[in-house]
Amino acid sequence: MIEDERETAHFLQKALKESGHSAELAHDGEDGLAAALEGGFDVLIVDRMLPRLDGLSVVRKLRADGVRTPVLILSALGEVDDKVKGLRAGGDDYLTKPYAFSELLARIEALSRRGDPQEQQTRYVVGDLVLDRLSHRVTRAGEPVALQPREFRLLEYLMRHAGQVVTRTMLLEHVWDYHFDPQTNVIDVHISRLRSKIDKNFEESLLHTIRGAGYMISAGKS
Question: 6-114: CATH homologous superfamily?
Answer without folding.
Answer: Response regulator (3.40.50.2300)
